[in-house]
Design brief:
Elements lengths: L1 E3 L15 E2 L7 E9 L2 E8 L7 E9 L6 E7 L6 E3 L8 E7 L2 E4 L9 E7 L4 E6 L10 E9 L6 E7 L3 E5 L5 E11 L2 E7 L3 E5 L8 E9 L2 E8 L7 E7 L6 E6 L6 E4 L7 E7 L5 E4 L3 E2 L2 E6 L3 E7 L7 E8 L3 E7 L3 E5 L10 E9 L4 E9 L4 E2 L3 E2 L20 E2 L6 E8 L5 E7 L24 E10 L4 E10 L4
Parallel strand pairs: 18-32, 34-39
Antiparallel strand pairs: 1-10, 2-6, 3-4, 4-7, 5-6, 5-8, 8-9, 10-11, 11-14, 12-13, 12-15, 15-16, 15-17, 18-19, 19-22, 20-21, 20-23, 23-24, 23-25, 26-27, 27-30, 28-29, 28-31, 31-32, 33-35, 36-37, 36-38, 38-39
């Protein structure tokens, strides 16, 4: 949509005692600037002294705007005067006349104010292109411009840009559904107190209101699923929204679209990949008009190395996160807290006597505006050792296994309540000699082969085969097959 400032050729008629006259076509005003003395501010008008001896004074007029005439605001009898200070800093246009005897006469010098030519508002990218005519009061190379705007009739103008050499400016992220007043100020680079303002351009930017906020506050990542929690300004007049994600270094793309701005959650399934996420609002041109802050899911990998967990994580190159790592089970504890962290080693021998082999960790990454949380659980893989010999008649305890030498069974480095097993002994012909079942409630020392046959006799001194199947807390299973030798007198 394009807005134009129209100029009209209006008449001039003035009488010395007349309070209101039509706008003049010329004047000798050299600059218009804002001046403050303490807390009192006004508009300082400067002009060139007339060298006509018949001139006895000056009259200053203020444009009323639109097609209205100008109104007299001051009558100055001092022919040598060069300035006048008004009591208003509102952007206005001014012109002058001279007093010759009892009659006001227009000055012949052309009025030098720049004028706003057009304001083009683009609803697809919410920009306003402002163009104005050049100021000719001093050399063009010595002129620069500043652009000001006031919203909804505000008395104070806000600086948008300054030190502009061109006679145009693009206002990015211009406000919508508001009344806008714009003025341009020409400034003399050699004397910054010498300025000249345009008359204010006023228009209305009538396009859908952008959201004042889109907040992506939480991202929960567990088992390959990322759950986003967010909020959208309910006053926005946009009706198209997207959940977008991007791999590190890549562009964002949509993974979900929705039109209900009261939607507050979405669950994506990125698998084991780390992505950057954001919520985007789109306008009628299908362009992104506003976005939330960016948040990343945190992918935690856990590698068992002996009796320790090696934890490492990746967050799709979002460097601003501060991390807190907690072990949730067993033995909950905060393990670390800090920035620029990507790994941690958790030593776990003291926890192998716990009633559960499931280890769960929560890693939280905090940004200034949001939180990303990742939960990872896995089961510790215990060490299972099987002796290679048994003496059915010896009750001596083997210090390495904690079992008597007449007990053959698995030696496992975790609490017996965390596993169950089935141990089957076969002779060289494949016949079952013993079949032992241990539950999580059983003492493992009482669930072993004592080296005897089914009839109670000690087994002959020969090689037997065993099959072992262990089920651990969390469902992890481990099977083993091997041989055991029955030996006497050892």
């Amino acid at each position: 949509m394009r807005y134009y400032l129209l100029f009209f050729n209006l008449c001039f008629a003035a009488v010395a005692l007349q309070a209101q006259v039509c706008p003049l076509h010329g004047n000798m005003i050299s600059s218009v600037s804002t001046e403050c003395n303490g807390g009192d501010c006004g508009t300082l008008i400067r002009w060139t002294v007339s060298d006509d001896p018949a001139v006895t004074g000056y009259v200053i007029y203020e444009y009323l705007g639109g097609n209205s005439c100008s109104q007299e605001i001051a009558r100055i009898a001092d022919v040598s005067a060069t300035t006048y200070l008004t009591n208003s800093i509102a952007p206005k246009g001014y012109t002058m006349a001279v007093i010759m005897g009892k009659q006001d006469q227009p000055l012949t010098q052309q009025h030098k104010q720049p004028e706003i030519i057009s304001v083009d508002f683009n609803p697809c990218n919410y920009t306003a292109d402002i163009r104005w005519s050049p100021y000719t009061g001093w050399d063009a190379d010595n002129t620069e411009y500043a652009v000001y705007a006031a919203v909804n009739g505000a008395s104070t103008y806000t600086l948008l840009a300054e030190h502009l050499a061109d006679v145009s400016y693009r206002w990015v992220n211009a406000p919508t559904r508001v009344s806008i007043s714009i003025l341009v100020q020409a400034v003399n680079k050699s004397d910054v107190s010498a300025v000249s303002n345009t008359r204010a351009w006023t228009g209305y930017f009538d396009f859908p209101r952008l959201p004042a906020y889109i907040s992506l506050s939480m991202l929960d990542y567990t088992d390959g699923k990322a759950r986003l929690t967010f909020a959208i300004d309910p006053s926005t007049e946009l009706t198209g929204f997207e959940v977008q994600r991007a791999a590190a270094g890549a562009s964002f793309s949509s993974v979900a679209s929705f039109g209900d701005k009261t939607t507050v959650t979405y669950t994506d399934e990125p698998g084991a990949a780390a992505y950057l996420y954001r919520i985007a609002a789109k306008n009628d041109c299908d362009s992104v008009a506003a976005v939330s802050d960016t948040l990343s899911n945190i992918v935690v990998t856990m590698l068992q190395e002996g009796n320790s967990w090696q934890l490492r994580w990746d967050n799709a190159s979002l460097p601003s996160m501060r991390y807190t790592l907690r072990r949730e089970r067993p033995q909950p504890v905060v393990l670390l807290s800090g920035s620029a962290l990507t790994a941690y080693t958790d030593n776990i021998p003291s926890m192998l006597n716990e009633s559960s082999l499931i280890f769960c960790y929560t890693l939280e990454g905090d940004t200034p505006a949001a939180k990303s949380r990742s939960t990872a659980c896995t089961t510790y893989t215990p060490v299972v050792v099987m002796p290679d010999a048994i003496d059915p008649l010896s009750t001596t305890v083997n210090p390495q296994t904690g079992r008597a030498r007449n007990q053959f069974g698995p030696v496992i480095n975790v609490d017996p309540q965390t596993y169950s097993y089935r141990l089957t002994i076969l002779n060289r012909n494949g016949a079952v000699v013993a079949d032992i079942n241990k539950t999580t409630a059983d003492n493992h020392l009482n669930k072993s082969w004592d080296g005897r046959l089914r009839n109670g006799d000690p087994a002959p001194g020969e090689v037997f085969t065993y099959r072992l199947s262990v089920t651990f807390d969390g469902g992890y299973q481990q099977t083993m097959t091997g041989i055991v030798t029955v030996m006497y007198g050892n």
